[in-house]
Specification:
Number of strands: 0
Distance between the termini: 47 Å
Mean pLDDT: 78
Radius of gyration: 23 Å
Low-confidence stretches: 1-25
Number of helices: 8
Structural class: mainly alpha
Helix content: 55-70%
Shape: elongated
Length: 161
């Protein structure tokens, strides 16, 4: 079987099956496992056949095989991998923007950036005066460097990772 003989094909085309083993959480596209499975169900019968899996695999392969040779060159493989990575980055950025845009108006205002930034500010503002000075920033950077050198067992003085 070609699938077992070619690790490159397994890496490239195995992604068609990845959705079958993922938890119900949303993927980078915001799709649930059920939505990913439904996308593989070409004939809409509520079941995914081996033929549908094979068709999905072949379609993904052909999209990367830009010269239509039926085989992937190293350049085609690299270009396909980079295109997929770029797509995932864009999807993550879009998802992050949508999470930050609390009122879904297509803009992020200072009020919507609370949470994480507010916690970071509180940690950096060592003396609690509402200002982060250069000395406080440097102290935080030094503490971070020290934690990295000490390894994963060290934690912030307040117990946060």
């Amino acid at each position: 079987m070609l699938w077992n003989r070619s690790p490159i094909l397994a890496l490239l085309l195995g992604g068609s099956l990845v959705g079958l083993a993922l938890p119900a959480s949303a993927d980078d596209h915001g799709n649930t496992r059920a939505e990913r499975l439904a996308a593989l169900d070409d004939n809409g019968d509520g079941a995914i056949s081996r033929a549908e899996i094979d068709a999905s695999r072949l379609s993904r392969f052909q999209a990367v095989d830009t010269d239509g040779s039926g085989a992937l060159s190293e350049a085609e493989f690299a270009a396909g991998a980079e295109a997929r990575a770029a797509e995932r980055r864009t999807q993550r950025q879009t998802a992050a923007f949508e999470r930050a845009d609390k009122n879904s108006d297509g803009q992020i205002t200072p009020d919507e950036t609370g949470g994480r930034m507010a916690r970071l500010f509180e940690r950096l503002d060592g003396d609690g005066d509402g200002l982060v000075t250069e000395a406080e920033r440097e102290a935080a950077r030094s503490a971070l460097r020290e934690r990295r050198r000490s390894g994963p067992s060290s934690a912030n003085p307040d117990g946060t990772p």
